[in-house]
Amino acid sequence: MDQSNTTMADSFPKFTRALVRQVPESIREHSEAVKTYKRDRYYRGYEFERIDIAKAREEHERYTQTLRDLGLEVTVLPADESTPDCPFVEDTCVVVGNRALVTRPWGGPRRKELDCVETCLKSLGLEVHRIHDEKAKLEGGDVVFTGKEFFVAASECTNKAGRKALANTFPEYPVHTIPVLWPEFHLKGVACCAGPGVMALGKNKDGKRAWEKILEKSEFTYEPVWVPDNTAVDCIHVNGTVIHCTEKQGPKSIKVFEEKLSCFNRVPCSIGELGKVDAALSCCSVLF
Q: Which residue positions are annotated as catalytic (predicted)?
C-alpha cells in the first residue's frame, strides 16, 4: 500500500461491535434473489441452484465466529421465517460512530426487517434515524464509507431520495453518487473499501467505470486494487485485518490480495451457500 494513504488511517472506522442475523429456512425458496433468478434465468444464462440450508448456517456461524475472533462483540438476532432475506442485515442500516440510519430497501418484503433492527440498535445505545420519504430507496450494500466520505450507488436498490436521506443523517461527510448498472445489485459488488485509502475494484468494465467516478468526485487519494474474480470484490476491513474470499472462491484474487494487501492481516472466509442468492461477505454484518 502507498504510504501516502496511511494518513487515511486516522479517520478510518475502528470497530468494537457487530450485528448479524441468523439464516431462516424460508430463504431457500423465497429470497428476493430467488424470485429474480426465476424471472431472469434465461437472461442470466444459467439455472438457479438452491441453497443448502444446513451448510449455509454452518458457514454463517463460522463467519460470525471470525468476527468474534477479531475482537468484536457480536449481537446475533434470531432468524425470522417471514423475512427470508433477513441475514443480509447490512442492507437495513448504515452506522457511523454512534449514529445509525435505518434504510429503506427497494423490496417491500425486506422493509419488514427494519423494526427489529431499529429496536436492536436503540437497545445498544445508538442514536437511530429513520427514512420517512416513501419514494426513497436505500440499501446498505450500496453504501461505501471510507472514513472521509460516502460513495453511494445510483442503482435498482438505491435512488436519489435515499442518498439525500443518508446525506441529511451524516451531514459532515460528502456523499458521492456512483452509477451501478443491472444486473449488479450493489455498489460493493463493484467497489469496496478494503482499508484506509484502499479501494478494491472489479477488474471489469463496471469496476473501471466506478473508479473513474471516484477519481472524478473525490478530493482524497485512494489506491486501487484490481480484483479479477467478480465475487471477490466485496471484503471487510476490521481494525487492520481484511476478511476476504477463500482461494476456492477467488483463486486469482487471492494472489492479488497477498501482493496488494500485504500490510494488513488477512483472513479468508466463505459464505458460498448464501452467495447463491447474491450475498457477499459484507452483506451479513453491520460493524460499528
A: 186, 283
Angle at 18 between CA 17 and CA 22, to 5 degrees: 150
Residue 30 annotated among the catalytic residues of the structure:
no
Active site residue 129: no
Residue for grid cell 469496476: 207
Distance CA 203, CA 200 (A): 9
266: exposed, middle or buried (C-beta count within 10 Å: 0-12, 13-18, 19+)?
middle
Q: How confident is the model at residue 186 (pLDDT cuts 50, 70, 90)?
A: very high
Q: How far apart are CA 128 and CA 138, in angstroms?
A: 16
Cα separation, 283 vs 189, whole angstroms:
10
The one catalytic residue in 93, 157, 245, 283 is 283
**Start-to-end CA span in the chain (Å):** 24
Catalytic residue among 60, 129, 186, 244: 186
Q: Distance between CA 77 and CA 116 in Å, rounded? A: 9
Does the model's pTM come out above 0.90?
A: yes
